[in-house]
Amino acid sequence: MSVNKVYEEENLSSNIDKVSEVENEEYELKNDDSVIITPNELKQLDKIYRKLDFRLMPALWCMYFLTSFGSNCYGLTLTMNMQQNHSLTQVLNLNPHHTSTASALYYVGYIIFDVPMNLIMTKVSPQSWLSRIVITVGLVYTCYSTLKNAGGVIAIRFISGMVGAGTWPGLSYYVSLWYPNDRSTRRIGYYYTAAQISAAVAGLVSAGFQKMDGIRGYTGWQWMYLVYGSITIFVGIILLWWLPDRPFKSSEDNSKNKIMTIYNKIFTTPHPLNESDRELHRKDLEHRYKLIKWTWKDVVQIITDLRIWPIIIMYFGVVGTGFGLAVFGSTIIYANNPSLTSIQVSLLYAPIWLFDLGGILLITPFADKFKKFRPLIFSFACLIIICGLFVTTFAHGSWKRYGGLLIAGFGLGPTVPICMSWSAEIFFKKYGDVGTAVSSALVSGLGNLGSVTSTYALYNGWPSDKARLYRNSNMILVLMLGISIIASGVCHLIKDKIRQ
Length: 500
Known about the structure:
One of its GO terms (biological process) is biotin import across plasma membrane. Keywords: Membrane, Transmembrane, Transmembrane helix, Transport. It holds the Pfam family MFS_1. The protein has 20 helices and two strands. By secondary structure, it is mainly alpha-helical. It has a single domain (56-270, 295-494), classed as MFS general substrate transporter like domains (Growth Hormone, Chain: A). A two-stranded antiparallel sheet has the order 1-2. The longest helix has 39 residues, at 39-77.
């Protein structure tokens, strides 16, 4: 029987009240279909998802930490060992046009390949595909240590985006395989903290690697890329055994393929749940697996569904701001206080992302608990970012400006997880498995045009803005965030009125 169970807060609270008098009485949670769950089963489901959290979240966290670390490293290498003339910019004679072009092409790689990469993931073993991403990212970043000129930087940044494409939407898709939508935003927030921690750690680690500058003829940034790339390759291989495959096999699985049978015996880990928990988990997620076949017609329908575009615009503003601060955060800090050393700049870069982590931990649980208020929660977070950007632009004194970066970091935290879980909620209902995969890839891919804007057109891509302490760049980010707030309201108005 196909079922579609949704944990709407008002339905859940009212149904729990009805069954509280009779301990084992069954009740229904209804949306389009219904599912029968007892109060005891509901408690057991909480335990099951906590068990899955301990198995899946550390692996997803490590994966996102490592794939995000490289991008954060790149921004820091532009200022590492500046006093010794050994920064990436100085060693390779990069000008602002080179750095902005290289940064933009990184996101172009994502934009081009995000959708096809995520579509492939719906057809293959997701744990193997995610491992492939980590391994190839590690290989490419190891090659950064051999860069000799600006052309190499531009080329390898595009390749980095290409091999990393599908990471964020792929992780969101993988979570949707194991968790219902009313539990997904918090889980996306859990591993999204890895991006913030990686940014903070990158700042601290880069300070240490600057002490290695000149050892065996390598600069500090070359040592950082060599060590980071090697560790990433190693962890990517481990993920083949750490992450489980899909929770339930579909009818399309080809058990007669001898090569795949051998591969699965070697690399597929046992299911993380016992038989009884597995059956209850299947009951809770059975609706998730009723639309797993798709054609290119379905893909075209999703792309032409008007509801996808407000979410893309939402993502455009927040991810553009996030990556603008991630890549050029150290540049902004140094411009506001030129007396700082490169090591001090790296150390001050880290707390921005610890504040971002705090925003995730404090705000994302409310986005799951109060799903109907997701646009308001998203808009509130955007207003916090705007407040931070105004402080860092117009406050008097370098430390007050730095405080504005911390405020902006706090607001950034919950915005991206809300975008991804909202797109999954809206598009799974009509399109099923491919709706989750394609919508997350489109939001991530096309939304990264915001990253292109902030890294190519703003900050280093706008040399005259440096004398203004990047005032105009910051204000354009404020404008982008304002448009994202409007888009969230539009999405709320039309999400149930188109193609339903």
